[in-house]
Amino acid sequence: MKAINISQRRRCQINCQLSMIHRDHGRISKIYRKAFSEAWSPILLIFIMVSIPLNIAIILLLRSGVLNTFEYIPVSIGIVVHTVIIMVLIVPMCFEVETLHQTKKDISGIVPNIKQIRLKLKYDDWYGRLLHGPKFGPVISTYGSLTYRMALELLGMYIAFWLFALTRLNI
């Protein structure tokens, strides 16, 4: 009888710890979203508001033909620095999203061993959300969460834009 009480008490402790893990993950996700909306979002907005006219000015400067060969080098370096700054701002947010989804590797082994139905359904839903649902973390309105794949696609589009613009110049 004493062994049954100990195993029930141990199971209750495990269930409480699992509930706490689920609750903490939800809190951390909310903290990341709030930090993005209060800190990173204004920085990115200001950077985009500055970078769009900067890109247009650089294209117009290159297109005008007033630059000689040696003046193209600083402009090219400016383009590369601008691209690096964009990636430096985006990659830490991608890392946050990746970190929030690391638990999906551990949950797959935990769910079959949970005996309490309510907790099992909660973890199963959480696992499904981590695998197939929208990502946790910073969100760019219609594009979704910032992931490494999205950062790579943005970098590819940015480089393709510049290659397209530079091939159309009258040099």
TrEMBL record:
Q: Tell me which domain of life the UniProt entry assigns to the organism this sequence originates from.
A: Eukaryota
Q: Which residues cross the membrane?
A: 39-61, 73-95, 150-169
Q: Which UniProt keywords apply?
A: Membrane, Transmembrane, Transmembrane helix
Q: Tell me what this protein is called.
A: Uncharacterized protein LOC113796616
Q: Which organism is it from?
A: Dermatophagoides pteronyssinus
The beginning of the lineage is: Eukaryota, Metazoa, Ecdysozoa, Arthropoda, Chelicerata
